[in-house]
Amino acid sequence: MSKITAAITGVGAYVPDYVLTNQILETMVETNDEWITSRTGIKERRILKDDGKGTSYLAIEAAQNLIKKKEIDPKDIELVIVATATPDMKAASTAAYTATQIGATNAFSFDLEAACSSFLFGMSVASSYIESGKYKNVLLIGADKNSSFINYKDRATCIIFGDGAGAVLFEPNHEGLGLQDELLRSNGEGREFLQATYGGSSYPINENTFKEGKHYIFQEGKTVFKNAVFNMADVTERIMARNHLTNDDISWLAAHQANKRIIEATANRVNLVPEKVMMNIHKYGNTTSATLPLLLHDYESQLKKDDKIIFAAFGGGFTWGSIYLKWAYNS
């Protein structure tokens, strides 16, 4: 038998209707469109405004979009992974609820949390289940409702993050397509620079911390930027080198959409022309776990079978990595 590889065979996505533009942010916090655009590349982001709707709502919508496009029976899905930094609730699995709501009643499910690297790490996990030969249909969803922990009086964070979700289906491939190689890393010394301290087990929320807004996300921008630029570029260059890939070989760079300057720095490190760099940060901002699948959704019509794609991400923790994948179908 030929070796089993894990290939992406379908993509779905969902973003909320409400568009939070830079012009609207100008009325909420001391900032302006030129400042935001020049430093981040972001023009607008989507926000889930409805009360009682959390990350699972985004995940369900993205999954249903994929299921409809692929015309698959949800009961054939064997595993549902929800990559997220903003689960609906503590203890109760967002993935379990998502799987039930989409009709994947034969699947087991779990959440995966590695900040902005969650979906990238999820690609590794999903592929491993496929390559084991035990499973044939694994649904990986990247979804985050970042607006749930953003302080819209803090211009350092409120200009960056948005809400959204994307989903991909992994299936076995016998043509050598799909995930080829991965380089995944983490360093716990970085967690003080990007996190929401209060609300976890170390620092439960009490009345005083809530009043002081300590449950909101905090980011030390310069440190995060410096580490993201170096580490994303480094793993991208290393995974290309060990797979003997030149910039001419690469069809696309799908990099985490945190900041346009970080994406451009990663592309420049491996001499990729802008036409090969997937970019939608201007439309959605940083949707954390959803950035990579949203890129695939937005560029799906341009992807061709055997396209060589380099994925790269960097997130709080710190977590980061790169994956080399060969696209498995013509849209």
Q: Can you offer a commentary on this structure?
A:
With 331 residues, this protein is of the alpha/beta class. Helices cover 32% and strands 24% of the residues. The chain contains eleven helices and 13 strands. It has a five-stranded mixed sheet, with helices on both faces. It has a four-stranded mixed sheet with strand order 8-13-12-11, with helices on both faces. Helix 3 crosses helix 4 and helix 8 runs parallel beside helix 9. The protein is globular, with a radius of gyration of 19 Å. The model has no long low-confidence stretch (mean pLDDT 93).
Which percent range describes the beta-strand content?
Answer: 15-25%
What quaternary form is this?
single chain
Morphology = globular
Assign the structural class, choosing from mainly alpha, mainly beta, alpha/beta, alpha+beta, or little secondary structure: alpha/beta
Share of helical residues: 25-40%
Radius of gyration of CA atoms, rounded to a whole number? 19 Å
Poorly predicted sequence stretches spanning 5 or more consecutive residues? none
Strands of the widest sheet, in order across it, are 1-7-6-4-5
Number of helices: 11
